[in-house]
Write a structure and sequence with these properties.
Number of strands: 0
Helix content: 40-55%
Largest sheet: none
Structural class: mainly alpha
Radius of gyration: 51 Å
Low-confidence stretches: none
Strand content: under 5%
C-alpha cells in the first residue's frame, strides 16, 4: 500500500480520496457567568506603562514644539534682516538726497533765481558752532527785521 501511495505521488497525480473529511461545527460559548479576577500585578504594570507612554509623548511634543518654534524664529529673523537692509538702503538714499539739498551752490543758485541777495555782515548767526563763552547757553533775542523788496 505504501508503495502504491508513493507511486501515485511520484506520478504527479492526486488521489481522489485522502481520508475522512474534516467538518467544523461552531459552538456558542456563554461566558456571562464567568467573573473576571482582577490581577493587581498586571494592573500596576499597565499603569506604569501608561505613565511612561505619556512621559514619552510629552517629551516628543516638547521637542517638536521647540523645533518648529526655532524654524519660525528663523523665518522671522530673515524677514527682519530683509526689512533692515531695505531701511538701510532707504536711509542711504535719504542721506544722499539731504546732502544734495544742503549743497550751498544749489541753494545760492535758487536764491538768485528768486531775486534774493547775499546777507550783510552781522545778519547771519551760526547756531551749530560752539557757544561763545564756554558752556553758557545763548538766549533768543528780538531784533528789528528790515524787509528789502527786490522788485
Amino acid at each position: 500500500m505504501a508503495a502504491a501511495a508513493t507511486a501515485v505521488q511520484s506520478s504527479g497525480r492526486r488521489p481522489c480520496w485522502t481520508g475522512t473529511p474534516e467538518i467544523y461545527f461552531t459552538k456558542g460559548v456563554d461566558n456571562s457567568r464567568l467573573l473576571k479576577v482582577e490581577d493587581p500585578q498586571h494592573s500596576r504594570e499597565m499603569k506604569q506603562f501608561g505613565i511612561a507612554l505619556c512621559c514619552l509623548f510629552l517629551l516628543v511634543m516638547t521637542y517638536a514644539w521647540q523645533h518648529f518654534t526655532a524654524i519660525e524664529y528663523g523665518y522671522k529673523i530673515e524677514s527682519l534682516k530683509t526689512q533692515r537692509d531695505g531701511l538701510a538702503e532707504m536711509n542711504r538714499a535719504l542721506r544722499l538726497e539731504e546732502a544734495s539739498l544742503r549743497d550751498p551752490e544749489r541753494i545760492d543758485t535758487l536764491a538768485k533765481k528768486l531775486g534774493m541777495q547775499s546777507p550783510q555782515a552781522g545778519q547771519v548767526i551760526r547756531m551749530d558752532t560752539a557757544l561763545p563763552d564756554g558752556e553758557t547757553p545763548v538766549l533768543a533775542s528780538v531784533a528789528a527785521i528790515s524787509v528789502v523788496s527786490a522788485r
